[in-house]
From TrEMBL:
Family: Belongs to the multi antimicrobial extrusion (MATE) (TC 2.A.66.1) family.
MF (Gene Ontology): antiporter activity; xenobiotic transmembrane transporter activity
Protein name: Mate-domain-containing protein
GO cellular component: membrane
UniProtKB keywords: Membrane, Transmembrane, Transmembrane helix
Transmembrane segments: 12-30, 42-66, 87-110, 130-151, 163-184, 190-208
Pfam families: MatE
Length: 227
């Protein structure tokens, strides 16, 4: 179906569109933080460029796991093997927890060397020393959210995850970050604390949804889609 005109008709089209929206909403939120960092000044903007690059590098680990998880869960559900799909999902989530925790601890321990490796400007490096521990916390929520979202995508829940991402980033994470950054004077640290809070709550909400998922029903829904 992927290589035919039928791919542009339901059900593939709505699922694909929801996936695109999900990805765009998340990345636009980070672009918004970068814009706000520029409003804060040169040093926050330089720090934002560095931590965004660092986060993108670390994000490649759960992203790779997520790609395989989505395909694995989707294939198993389509093959009417719901319990194997459930096992694959939770195995991936436990691996994500381990890799995210490792990234978090490593960043915190190596925060000073990393800060000075990225910038020889003392003002920027000092700002990074206080910001990197927040980025370390972000890795926990971001890694888990990435993989649990892939589980939901494998089950065909792109629309639900898209809505939750949009609501979390634009009604919670960004408003909270802006409030912490400007009225409360936390600057770039405040913007990232807002993201940490939002992504953590989103990951928890999706984990609860996966925990409550009726895997047998999801596999039966796959049959209806095929029909």
């Amino acid at each position: 179906m992927i290589f035919s005109a039928n791919a542009l008709l339901p059900p593939p089209l709505p699922i694909g569109t929801a996936g695109v929206i999900l990805t765009c909403l998340e990345w636009w939120a980070f672009e918004g933080v970068t814009y706000l960092a520029g409003v804060l000044g040169v040093v926050p903007l330089a720090s934002q460029a560095i931590v965004l690059s660092l986060s993108t590098i670390l994000f490649s680990i759960p992203q790779g796991l997520a790609a395989s998880t989505s395909a694995r869960v989707g294939n198993l559900l389509g093959a009417q093997r719901p319990w194997e799909a459930r096992a694959a999902a939770w195995t991936a989530l436990f691996i994500a927890a381990g890799t995210s925790l490792t990234a978090c601890v490593s960043l915190y321990i190596l925060r000073n060397p990393i800060a000075w490796a990225y910038s020889r400007d003392e003002e920027v490096a000092r700002a990074l020393e206080t910001l990197i521990p927040i980025i370390a916390l972000f890795q926990l929520g971001d890694g888990m959210n990435c993989v649990v979202t892939s589980v939901m995508q494998g089950a065909g829940k792109q629309a639900l995850t898209g809505w939750l991402n949009g609501l979390t980033y634009y009604l919670l994470a960004l408003p909270l970050g802006i409030a912490l950054a400007f009225p409360l004077g936390l600057g770039l640290d405040g913007l990232w604390l807002g993201l940490v809070g939002g992504i953590s709550l989103l990951a928890i909400a999706l984990l609860i949804r996966v925990h409550r998922m009726n895997w047998i029903r999801e596999s039966e829904l796959c049959l209806r889609v095929e029909e």
